[in-house]
From TrEMBL:
Name of this protein: LacI family transcriptional regulator
Highest rank taxon of the organism: Bacteria
Keyword Transcription regulation: yes
Domain HTH lacI-type: 8-61
């Protein structure tokens, strides 16, 4: 038999001290009782091995020290790195990340957001699949919300870490244009339920400005297998583009797999550009040209915003709660001049 001692209860501490359970609770929290009573109760609690249950302690404090992290799809390698970074940054600040995965499903994303709220997380960090959903205009009224990547509907989020997508798109398309490419395919994870995402809008505007012919192709899931399947269909034919621009490095990895299966050379037959600068992208053969958003800076900004809101240290207007990340282009060997 196990010799583990059963957790002592607050009633047992009350019996040992001759106080009521309510008085013991007050004494343990250091309120509404004398210092002498508090010392007597703490001594009895220590002797009995009493420890406050973490859930009860959280309810008493009105805090759980948990921050929900709602990921659009953890099949995306960049989001995996983001989740690891946010989890560690929260832990360094005495908080814990409760990480959930929407699996690329906007309806599941909203259901999980409600569940995290109902579990009384202190705050919520989300990289939304559908930033226009009606829930996002309501949720910040019940739990502090910080969004990453896109502003949420209603503009009521307590914090935003958004990307200068226009600049990121311009860097990628100008780079490919300068290499002589005129016919491009853009792979995006945007769904029918998430129309008019800023990055996609900028692609069309910049393509017209630069005189490029661009076909935007949706990848239904941010998985390696899905990206490979879509890339095979696009690249297997005489009218294939000379360059592709992927709105996630994880999609670009699928493009690499497709080129190998089709016997195409990167960048000799098709140039490839990504959008995340995931650490693995520099290790590919050839290394991937990609737009870098400084993931460490994104993590620091998002975590600092949500912690400040939870601690009541954010009083300013929307602009003071909005962090805009500026991109840079990491030019590597996956992009070269258009074949003659």
């Amino acid at each position: 038999m196990s010799d583990r001692r059963k957790r002592a209860t607050i009633r047992e501490v009350a019996q040992a001290t001759g106080l009521s359970p309510a008085a013991v609770s007050y004494a343990l929290r250091g309120i509404q009782t004398s210092e002498e009573t508090q010392e007597r109760v703490r001594a009895a609690a220590a002797e009995l091995g009493y420890e406050a249950h973490p859930i009860a302690r959280a309810l008493a404090r009105g805090r759980t020290d948990q921050v929900g992290l709602l990921c659009g799809s953890l099949e995306d390698y960049w989001q995996q790195s983001l989740a690891v970074g946010i989890g560690r940054a929260l832990l360094a600040r005495g908080r814990y990340a409760l990480i959930v995965d929407a699996g690329g499903d906007p309806e599941r994303e909203l259901a999980l957001a409600r569940r995290l709220r109902d579990q009384r997380v202190d705050g919520l960090i989300v990289q939304p699949l559908d930033p226009s959903a009606a829930l996002w205009a309501e949720l910040p009224g019940t739990v502090p919300v910080v969004s990453i990547g896109d502003a949420l509907r209603g503009g009521t989020a307590q914090g935003e870490v958004v990307f200068d997508n226009r600049r990121g798109v311009t860097l990628a398309l100008e780079h490919l244009r300068d290499l002589g490419h005129r016919r491009l395919t853009v792979f995006t994870s945007t769904r029918a339920s998430t129309p008019d995402r800023p990055a996609d809008v900028h692609v069309n505007a910049e393509a017209e400005r630069l005189g490029l012919r661009v076909d935007v192709v949706a990848v239904p899931e941010q998985s390696f297998a899905a990206a490979t399947e879509v890339a095979l269909r696009v690249l297997d034919g005489p009218n294939r583009p000379t360059a592709v621009f992927c709105f996630a490095d994880s999609i670009a990895y699928g493009v690499y797999a497709a080129t190998r299966e089709l016997g195409l050379a990167v960048p000799g037959d098709v140039a490839v550009c990504g959008y995340d600068d995931h650490p693995m992208s520099a290790l590919l053969t050839p290394p991937l040209t990609t737009v870098d958003w400084d993931i460490d800076g994104i993590v620091e900004s998002a975590v600092q915003l949500v912690v400040d809101v939870i601690d009541g240290e954010v009083d300013g207007g929307p602009r003071e709660r909005r962090v805009v990340r500026k991109p840079s282009l990491r030019v590597r060997a996956s992009t070269g001049e258009r074949p003659g």
